[in-house]
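job 3f2a | input accepted
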Amino acid sequence: MDRVIENIYKNAIRFLVFTVDEILSSSNEAQQTTNDKLIKTSIFLQTTVELALKFSVSFHSGLRSILDSQRNMNDEQLIKEYENNNLKVSAFETLKNLVKTNKNYMFEKHDEIKRMEKFQTIRNRVLHSDYFFSESEFLEIEGEFIYIIIHIIIPLLYEPYNKESIFYVSPVDFLKVQLGQERFNLLTNQDHYIKSIEVLAEKYSKNNDDKVIRCVFCNQYTWLAGSQLCLLCNINETLYDLLDCPTCMNKKTVIYDYLNIEINENLLPAKCQYCGDKLFAKKCEECGNTVAYSEYLFPDEMVCECSLRNKIDIFPSIFGFIAGSFVTSENLKKRKIIIKNDRKNVIQIAGDLIEEEYKKRIGEVDRFEKAVYRSIDELVNQKLIELDIEKEDFFEECKKFINCHYSHGTEAEVRYAFKLLSLSEHGYDSSEKINLIFKKVMNNNYDSSILSMDDKQVLYKMQDNFSLDWKLFYGLYDDLTKPLQVLVKYRNEGLIKTKN
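job 3f2a | predicted structure (500 res):
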C-alpha cells in the first residue's frame, strides 16, 4: 500500500513541476500570455491538486479511503488492480469534502477550499467556455495559480505540515528540493509568489500571536519577529538580536548592528521594522542588556532598568518645555499667575526657561525640580509675572504632567503633549485651526506663501502666543523686522480694521 501512496506523491510532484514551468514561461515570454498558456497551466494545476488530494487523504487515512467500490478488497487484490491500472478513485468533489471535515488538515479549510473552488471556476471558463482573458485578467489568474500552489498544494503534499509549527510553515525548503534551485529562484522572483508568502506570514502571525515585520535580509514583510524566521528567504537568524520597540510596543521588532555596538561606545542607531521609527540601541555597561530608546533622548537619559531612577529626571528636554508651558497656561486661566507687563508670550518664555535650565543640569539629582524653581524665580525677578501659587505646587503640576504623558519619549507622545499644550493655550477651535495651518505649511516645503488671508488672520490674532521662531515659520514677519511694519502690512491686507 505504501508503494502506491508514494507513487501518487511522486506523480503529484511531477505535475507540480510542469505547472511551475508553465507559470514561469508565461511570465518570461510576454508575447505568449494567451489562452493556450492558461489552458496548459490550468490542466497541470488541476491534475496536481487532484493528485495532492489523493496523496494527502491516503497518507492520513489509508489507500482505501480514496477508493470507490474496491475498499473491501484485501491488500494483494488492491496491488493487482493498481498494477493493471484498474483502481477506481473517488471523485474530486468527494475527496475535497473529506478534507473539509478531517482534522488532520491544518490549513485554513474555509478560505482555502473557497480558493480551490474559485480556481475550478477559472479552469471551467478556460476549458469549456473558450473565454478570452485580457492581459490584466491573465496576471490576476497567474496570481491565483501561485496562491493555490503555496496555500493548498504544499500543505497537502508536505506530510508533517502543521500550521502550529513554524518549522513546517515555510514552503522554501520543500520547493527547493522538489523544484530544484534554478527553478525555485525564478519562482521566488515573481510578485505573486511574494504576495502569497506575505499572506502566509500574516495568517501564521494571527494564529500564533507573532508579529510580521520587514525582513532585514530580503526587505519584504515576511519576517516573523517572535520566531525570527523569514518565510520568504527562509533565513532563521536567531543570533540577530532584535529589541522591543518603545514606540509601537511590539516585541522583537527593532534591528541594530548588534555585532559592532561595543566598539561604538555601546550606542548605535536602530530602527523598528514594524512601525518604522528611528531609534537608538544602547547596551548597559552594568548588566549587559541592550534596549531601544527614542531618538529624542540624550545618551545620558537612556537609563537601563537595572539602575532606573525616577523618570522625572531622565525625560527628553522637550517635555520640560511642554510641561512648563502647559502648567503656566493652565494657571494663567485660573488667575494663579498674573502677567505683569505687555509680554503676552509668557507661556513660551516659561517653557523655554525650564527647558534650558533642565539641559544645564544633566547628571544632577532632582534636576527637573531645580530647573522649575530657578525658572520661576527668574520670571518673578524680571517682573514678568506675579505668582498666586506656591513654587512647590507649580512643580508638582509639572511633575504630574510628565508622569501622565511621558513613558518612552516617542514621537507620538511628543505630538500628543504638544496637542494638549495647544488646546490649553488656544482653545479647541483655534488649536484645530493652527494644526491645519501648520500641516499646510509643512506640506508646502515649509513655505508659508501658500497661506490664505483667513489663515493669516487666525495667526495674527494669536501671534502674542508665538515665539519669534514660530512667527518666522508662519511668515508673520516675512522679510520685515519691525513690529510697526508688520502692523501696517496687515492693515493694508485688511486683516485688521482701523477707524477712519
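job 3f2a | The chain has four domains: 2-161, 254-307, 311-406, 428-492.
job 3f2a | closed
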